Amino acid sequence: MFLDRLTERQQQSFMALATRMVLADGDVAPEENAILNARKEAMGGNVTAPPAEVFGATNADVLDTRAVRVFVTFEVLMLMLSDDHIHTDETKVMDEICTALKISADERQQLHDLAVRANAGSDTAERQAILAAVEAMAGG
């Protein structure tokens, strides 16, 4: 939804975080794979995740603005929630991401609730309301 606003390098970092989330529980669900592929296509189809970031620390230096951090957190939460099962290891990965990106527990919960609504297949008006709420959190 917001990935087209990221620079190419930020998109690579997003893909690293998204890949880390998909791999977290050791089982890549078809829903997760579909969303990951859709996000990659939305970014032009050529974005690759740097392996050092998939298996290393979150690159908060690249994800350097409040807006980028909120957008990336929201997108990763949507991916985490896509298979209707939150594994303990996925929660740990999300904890690490939110800590690195300085997303508070309250903000995380708000973004989580918005991601649940977005994944529910909302109608156009609801989807616009979700996008506006994420934008507001990002400072836009």
CATH topology-level fold name: TerB-like
Please give the alpha-carbon distance between the first and last residues.
15 Å
Strand-residue proportion: under 5%
Average pLDDT score: 90
CATH architecture: Orthogonal Bundle
Low-confidence stretches: none
Whole-number count of domains: 1
CATH class: Mainly Alpha
Q: What overall form do the CA principal axes indicate?
A: globular
Q: What is the chain-wise order of helices and strands?
A: HHHHHHH
Q: Tell me the helix content.
A: 55-70%
Q: How many separate helices? A: 7
Radius of gyration using CA atoms only: 14 Å
Q: Let me know the largest β-sheet.
A: none
Number of strands: 0
How would you classify the helix and strand content by structural class?
mainly alpha
Give a short summary of the structure:
By secondary structure, this protein is mostly helical.
Structural account:
With 140 residues, the protein is mainly alpha-helical. It has a single domain, classed as TerB-like. It has helices spanning 8-23, 30-42, 51-54, 66-81, 88-100, 105-119, 124-138. The mean pLDDT is 90.
What's the layout of helices and strands?
Layout: H1 8-23, H2 30-42, H3 51-54, H4 66-81, H5 88-100, H6 105-119, H7 124-138
List keywords for this structure.
66% helix; 140 residues; mainly alpha; TerB-like
